[in-house]
Every structure is written in structure tokens, then in C-alpha cells.
Amino acid sequence: MLASRTKRQRMLYAVGASLAAVGLMAGCSAETGASNTEPTNASVEGNSATGDTITIGFSGPAADHGWLGAINSAALAEAKKYPDVDLKVAEGTNDANLQISQVEGFINDKVDAIVLLPTDGAALTEVALQAMAAGIPVINVDREFSSTFAARVTILGDNYGMGVSAGSFVCDQVGDNPNAIVAEIAGIDSLPLTQDRSKGFSDALKDCGLVVSNRVAADFTVQGGEASTSQLLAAAPKIDALWNHDDDQGIGVLAAIDAAGRDEFIMVGGAGSANAMREIQNPASVMKATVIYPSTQAADGIRLARLLVQGKAMSDLVEVEIPSRIVLNAPVVTSDNVDRFLPTAFES
């Protein structure tokens, strides 16, 4: 009875998250009760119609990570789709002070909107507030500001949902063994996103009576993933399931697993790299799944900034205003659906 109930709970969570993500995509919509067929600012045709040219400033961290590189390239590609968008791109940086000065430059240039993936959400909050006070809407991507007043729109991946998705998959695979040993390789423990992922994972495992038995933290790099995994494998002579938070560091994780000659467990990745998905396609690999953390967030931010400044709305919603907060879904990729996700996956 408990297994059936908790499985239904996980299904409801996944369906609810999927519905939230669907609202982000511009698909077909019907103007319920409309008396004419003219395009409006809340229709697909109205959304895509060329409007007044707007200038969008975009700033993000340095692309020193496969996922971050994909974030930046997707944003640039999205802007090129629109002849009415002039995109000003600041050089990627991991220096919060430099990024603050970049945003100040956008404010001085009187851009129409700013899409900002902050290297540190708290550190960039004050300058984002300044932009908002100057009448420039800010679209906050991935790492949240510490004030809700610092952004008109916040668009996020679902870090807690990633953990839930990973934990639910582990439960489905080994949950019938009450003594299953579950291991976890986190990212940087001081980051809220890592804490959220770990909490979601732990909460989902509780549904099938499991806990994390062995845990280490890495640093989102290949080298860190390999070193931390070697440490974990030495401490845990037997593992049934392992979740690695990040597919970029997962290259090192897999290298350590191969070097140790371990293959008695299943592995779940995180973020959704092409490398991980090719591993999933290999029946001999321990890698059986990965959880998507969308690399489209800044591209979505560009699209939303355009709609916002041009006074348009999202065509899949009845609401005539752009939402203030959007959280994207965290689906699980397995051998059953990998062909759907691989073509748009990023390379680590």
C-alpha cells in the first residue's frame, strides 16, 4: 500500500513540474471566447511578429564548464532568431565585482532589458535593484538574487526537483531491497543549489525507506569528480546505487569507477550532457540515467525579455502578463527516451 501511494506521489510531482515547464514554450493557443481572429500580443502570431527593435544586455559567468558554455551559446543563438533584438553581450566572468561593473554599463547605456546569470546571486542583488529602479527590467537566470525586488522575471532550473527525480529513479531500481547502499557525489557543498539537490534526493529516498550511506562532495570539475569518487569507492566496498550531481564532473567520476574496476551498482547523473547520454546508450556502462538541468535558461530569458519589453504575453497562457517566476522541469533520461534528449544535449 505504501509503495503504491508513494509512487503516485512521485508521478504527481513529475506531472505538476511538467505542466509548469510547458507554459514556457510558445505553442498553439486558442483565444477562448474571442470574437475575431486577428493576432494579439498573447497569440502565437503576435509573439512572433517583428516589433520595435529592443536592446538586451546579457551577462553570465565564464564558460569554464560544459553546462555554462551551453547556457551562453543557447542565449546567443536565441537572440539571432529575432530581427528586432540587439543583444549586447558582456564577457563571461567569475569575478562578481567585474560583473557588477558590466551591469552598471548596461544601466548607463540605457538598455531595454538585462538578462543576468549572476556569478553570485547575493553579490549582484544591489546592482540588479539599481537596474530595476532605473526602469530596466531584469531577468534573473539560474542563481537567485537575495531580493524579490531585484528582478521582474526569475527563471530557474529545479535543483530540489533534480534530487527528487534522481531519488525516485533509484527507488524504482533498488527500492525493493531495504538494505540497498546508496551513495552520493555532490557538487560544491557551500552552494544552495547543491544543498537543494541533496535534500530532494534524501526526501525521495525516504519514500522507499532508503538513506544515503556514503557521500562526498566534488567541485563540478573532472579532476574533482575523479578524486572524490576514488575516495568514496575506497570507503564503500559495496554500493547498489550512486547519484552524481553533475555530468561535467561525471567524466572524472566514471574514470575513477573504471580505474577501480567497479560495476556492481547503477549510476545516475545530473544536468544532462551528451557524454552522459552516450553512456546511457551503452548497456555495459554503470550509467543508467541522468536528470536534466536545462541549459536553455538564458535563452528562455532572452525570449521572455523580448516579450516583456514589447508588451507581449506568453501564448500558452491566458494571463496577459509575463509570469514573475518560472521553474523548469527536471526529467529523467534513460535508455527508453535518450534518443529524444540527445540531439540537444551539451558536450562536457
TrEMBL record:
Location, primary (coarse class): other
Location(s), subcellular: Cell envelope
Boundaries of every Periplasmic binding protein domain copy: 56-312
UniProt keyword terms in alphabetical order: Signal
Database matches in SUPFAM superfamilies: Periplasmic binding protein-like I
Coiled coil regions, renumbered to chain: none
Molecular function via GO: carbohydrate binding
Domain of life: Bacteria
Cellular component annotations (GO), alphabetically ordered: cell envelope
Span of the signal peptide: 1-26
Sequence similarity: Belongs to the bacterial solute-binding protein 2 family.
Name listed for the protein in its UniProt record: Ribose transport system substrate-binding protein
Annotated organism of origin: Glaciibacter psychrotolerans
High-level lineage: Bacteria, Bacillati, Actinomycetota, Actinomycetes, Micrococcales
